[in-house]
Amino acid sequence: xxxTTKTGDKGKTNLANGERLSKSSLLFNAIGDLDELNSWLGxxxxxxxxxxxxxxxxxxxxxxQQMIYVISAELVKxxxxxxxxxxxxxxxxxxxxxxxxxxxxxxxxxxxxxxxPGGCKIAAWIDVTRxxxxxxxxxxxxxxxxxxxxPIIMSTCNxxxxxxxxxxxxxxQQELVEEKQLSLE
Length: 185
Hints:
Layout: E1 12-14, E2 20-22, H1 26-51, H2 55-75, E3 79-80, E4 83-84, H3 90-106, H4 121-144, H5 151-174
Antiparallel strand pairs: 1-2, 3-4
């Protein structure tokens, strides 16, 4: 079977259940944002792999990539072995644990000010990834105003962006990068 089917040439495409929707639908906007998030996670993983210092985070982010596929599958009502694909609630607990662990490594005052995005190269890629994660979350919130989305999905994306922010702070700290604080003056 060819990847080129031409069935989407007129701006519509199929859900996993066969339903056809416009490619500009809220659902496909959310799926597209999740797809972009997964791509940026791939860039981030490649960048972390180059440094060799962050293998635990690299492995965790690979699990997160799989989780993003599961979220997308749930949104399009995909089934596997006759059962609906759903996000496991344990993923949120796991992300929260990683956040807690990072916060303990950072200390008390790391989040007292808004910080300029960037720092070292890895932290800059994390900031881009985090921003895309936030956009995906906003897309799902908008979608949830029209369709039922389990709250665990949005909570998980929200917590993922928290994890990414904490990770960029930790990496800048470990790389001895002086954070630039935002000022409104």
